[in-house]
């Protein structure tokens, strides 16, 4: 059976973990457990008690939320997290309930640092709170950028920017210039992520296809010209 340390090569491709001091990274892995989730299986829900810190090492997790009464509820997909993304740090800091839902979008394996063990260790080694804070501030910067784009940019630019960010792993990889060619995401997921209609999403993607920047297939978007797609973002 695999152990968390077996996934160290995956975790090391991530900028945050790769830059952790050894006296934090090693205890973190020593505290860790592996969690496996099937497609559609929930990791935690909004309002759940803190359960620790997670890293995706295989598969993908969607972070989403729903508002409104059951008969007219509206859903928002905030982000799709793939290896080697870490998440869950907000509840580590404030010891409060989960703010959103986390659900596996495909068969997924996660490295999990249980909440109580992590809290106990950090109380004994408070100097490492700063390293954990860097994980949260990076997410905060991204959230501010997303809020600005939602307020100021038209839908085509927002969609192109999101595809570029996803292709580049949201800037989380250590390798400079690394990108993925195929993004596994449906048009419905993209529309929820960007708060635009499914029809508008389809129209924008068709335009990008006509310019030979992307190729759209069922459940995925293939990036044909990343530099050209960046040009749309300007």
From TrEMBL:
What top-level branch of life does the organism fall under? Answer: Bacteria
Membrane-traversing stretches? none
What are the residue boundaries of the HTH crp-type domain, all occurrences included?
Answer: 153-227
The record, for InterPro entries, names: cNMP-bd_dom, cNMP-bd_dom_sf, Env_Response_Regulators, HTH_CRP, RmlC-like_jellyroll, WH-like_DNA-bd_sf, WH_DNA-bd_sf
Recorded coiled-coil stretches: none
Q: Which UniProt keywords apply?
A: DNA-binding, Transcription, Transcription regulation
Q: Which GO terms describe its molecular function?
A: DNA binding; DNA-binding transcription factor activity
Classification via PANTHER family: CRP FAMILY TRANSCRIPTIONAL REGULATORY PROTEIN, HTH-TYPE TRANSCRIPTIONAL REGULATOR ARCR
What's the protein called, per UniProt?
CRP-like cAMP-binding protein
- Species: Acidovorax delafieldii
């Amino acid at each position: 059976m695999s152990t968390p340390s077996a996934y160290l090569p995956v975790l090391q491709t991530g900028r945050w973990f790769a830059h952790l001091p050894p006296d934090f990274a090693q205890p973190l892995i020593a505290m860790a457990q592996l969690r496996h989730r099937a497609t559609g299986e929930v990791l935690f829900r909004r309002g759940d008690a803190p359960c620790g810190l997670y890293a995706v090492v295989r598969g993908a997790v969607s972070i989403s939320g729903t508002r409104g009464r059951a008969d007219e509820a509206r859903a928002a997909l905030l982000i799709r997290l793939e290896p080697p993304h870490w998440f869950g740090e907000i509840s580590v800091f404030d010891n409060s309930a989960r703010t959103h839902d986390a659900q596996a979008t495909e068969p997924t394996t996660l490295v999990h640092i249980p909440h109580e063990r992590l809290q106990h260790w950090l109380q004994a080694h408070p100097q490492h709170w700063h390293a954990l804070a860097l994980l949260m501030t990076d997410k905060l910067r991204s959230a501010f950028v997303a809020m600005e784009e939602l307020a100021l940019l038209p839908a085509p630019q927002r969609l192109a920017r999101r595809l570029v960010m996803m292709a580049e792993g949201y800037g989380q990889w250590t390798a400079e210039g690394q990108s993925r060619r195929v993004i596994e995401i449906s048009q419905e997921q993209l529309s929820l992520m960007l708060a635009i209609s499914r029809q508008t999403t389809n129209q924008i993607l068709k335009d990008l296809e006509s310019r030979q920047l992307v190729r759209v297939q069922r459940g995925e978007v293939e990036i044909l010209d990343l530099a050209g797609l960046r040009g749309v973002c300007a």
